[in-house]
Design a protein that fits this description.
The complex is a heterodimer of chains A (about 120) and B (about 375). In chain A, α1 crosses α5 and α2 packs parallel to α3. The longest helix of chain A is centred in the N-terminal third of the chain and has 13 residues. In chain A, about 45% of the residues lie in helices and about 20% in strands. In chain A, strands 2-1-3-4-5 form a five-stranded parallel β-sheet, with helices on both faces. Chain A has about 120 residues and is of the alpha/beta class. Chain B is mostly helical and about 375 residues long. Helix content of chain B is about 70%, strand content about 0%. Chain B has 19 helices and no strands. The longest helix of chain B is centred in the first third of the chain and has 59 residues. The chains are: A alpha/beta (about 120), B mainly alpha (about 375). At the A-B interface, α1 and α5 of A face α1, α3 and α4 of B.
Chain lengths: ~120, ~375
């Protein structure tokens, strides 16, 4: 399984990578901003995407649109955000997010949610 | 010859001094660059090493069933201790990483980080920084103790809360709000200063994490001698929907200070508390000329007046000199439903279409 983690916080990426690899959920690639994420998505195929909402160049919502509309893929996408506003959550689900996790979050919870989506 | 020498000597000395100073400056710049780049490399190294160790702690979550055996934990801690080797920079980097991770994570992961902070004796390092002569270092130490939930720091932080330097006392007070669960808002009892927006946001942010049953009874500060504290407490009572405070909030509508009355109206509105109509009308009589109070009242009346008598209840406000008040009233009436809207349209026709502009404004979604 290949998982893409998009976040501008390198420490968070390294923690998520460590946790998911440790739990045997697959190989984790990362992107530090929206542009890098889009470039990776255009070149490679991933089984799951975890993305922050607020990132330089392109937001997490733009990434969802890119995957769902431009690429027409059904890859599960988990949105990670410090902003838990109802409007943002609804917008994310409306355009195709598979799950939404509000920061601060539990790494174990993230791992279980990833596992659940990968099994589906 | 002597004349020539005496003329040349000071020039020579000046020239040598200039060259010497230039060399010294260049050397200084070079040295500082070397130090800076070495520090950067060192920081990068520590960041990488500590990030791995910290991830290891977090992922294994000492308290979970898959946790480290104690010996492995002790070994890891001693490895980190060895790596830090008493270095100020290393300790600071480790604390910074812990703070960032504890901001992003929740649950047992945070407990593990806090545990590691204590086991690595970094709490002592933060406590020692409280004695620094530089206030920024002390403020940073307070933030570390607060973020990493070090309760042992409470006495020291309490002492700083009495500091004459406003930045320090504010920082310490906000730290106590988070750390000292027993008396976290007690400082408001005797607080005489201004509760800045920053402080209000900090307190509110903290209160959002508190279980509803553990929230303080905000009516306690409704009669505080500090208007700032009063207004804030009233707003918080509304924000956290403390219904038991409604009678006290209703009484505050009779207050002479418009700031208190406005806060009480706002809180009642948020709580959608149906206040006595006559009392709200009495507020209008007393503060008719205060635009801010009247706008608040008009908005509040719009939400609290029942639609069956909506137009008649608010009709009086339509003659207010402030456009904003009239606008809020028309908007409230239009939201009451078609019957009240027709009454408003009839009223508009009877008054020479004086309210058409406001009605257009209300009906235009881009403007309202």
């Amino acid at each position: 399984m290949r998982i893409l983690v998009c976040d501008d916080d390198q420490m968070l990426i390294s923690m998520i990578r460590f946790k998911l690899t440790r739990d045997g959920l697959g190989e984790v690639a990362s992107a530090a901003d929206g542009r890098e994420a889009m470039a990776l998505l255009a070149e490679e195929t991933f089984d799951l995407i975890i993305s922050d909402i607020h990132m330089p160049f392109h937001s997490g919502l733009e990434i969802i649109s890119f995957v769902r509309t431009r690429q027409g893929k059904a890859t599960p996408i988990i949105i990670l955000s410090a902003e838990g506003l109802e409007e943002t959550v609804l917008r994310a689900f409306d355009i195709g997010a598979s799950d939404f996790i509000t920061k601060p979050f539990s790494p174990s919870e993230l791992s279980i949610r990833v596992k659940r989506l990968l099994i589906k | 010859m002597t004349i020539y020498m005496s003329y040349e000597f000071p020039v020579l000395i000046t020239g040598l001094c200039f060259i010497g100073t230039t060399i010294a400056i260049i050397l200084f710049i070079l040295l500082s660059r070397i130090v800076k780049s070495r520090r950067k490399e060192e920081s990068e190294y520590f960041r990488n090493v500590f990030s791995k160790s910290l991830n290891n702690f977090i992922v294994h979550e000492v308290y979970s069933k898959d946790s480290h055996p104690l010996s492995a934990l002790t070994f890891r801690l001693s490895e980190i201790q060895k790596e830090m080797n008493g270095s100020f920079l290393a300790k600071q980097i480790m604390i910074d990483q812990m703070m960032i991770q504890s901001e992003n994570l929740s649950g047992s992961a945070v407990i593990v980080i806090e545990q590691a902070y204590r086991l690595l004796e970094l709490d002592r390092f933060s406590l020692s920084k409280l004695k620094s002569t530089r206030w920024k270092v002390r403020a940073q130490a307070i933030r570390e103790l607060t973020k990493l939930n070090c309760l042992e720091g409470i006495p020291a932080v309490q002492a700083i809360s009495r500091s004459s330097k406003k930045e320090m006392s504010d920082e310490a007070l906000m730290a106590l709000v988070r750390l000292d669960e027993q008396k976290n808002l007690q400082f408001l009892d005797k607080y005489t200063g201004t509760l800045t927006r920053w402080m209000q946001l900090n307190i509110h942010h903290h209160l959002c994490d508190v279980a509803p049953g553990s929230l303080p009874d905000f009516t306690r500060w409704f009669n505080s001698p500090n208007v700032n504290v009063q207004v804030f407490a009233i707003a918080m009572a509304g924000e956290f929907k403390q219904n038991a405070a409604i009678p006290a909030l209703t009484n505050l509508l009779l207050h002479s200070d418009h700031r208190i009355v406005e806060a009480a109206i706002g809180a009642l509105e948020v709580m959608e508390a149906h206040s006595p109509f006559n009392l709200l009308m009495a507020v209008a009589d007393r503060f008719w000329l205060s635009d801010t109070t009247m706008v608040k009242l008009a908005k509040c009346m719009g939400r609290l007046v029942t639609p069956t008598n909506g137009f008649h209840a608010l009709e009086r406000f339509l003659s207010h000199p402030s456009y904003e008040v009239r606008f809020q009233v028309v908007r409230a009436i239009c939201q009451f439903g078609p019957v009240e809207r027709i009454k408003m349209e009839n009223f508009n026709s009877a008054n020479g279409m004086k309210y058409s502009g406001i009605m257009d404004h209300v009906n235009e979604p881009l403007l309202s």
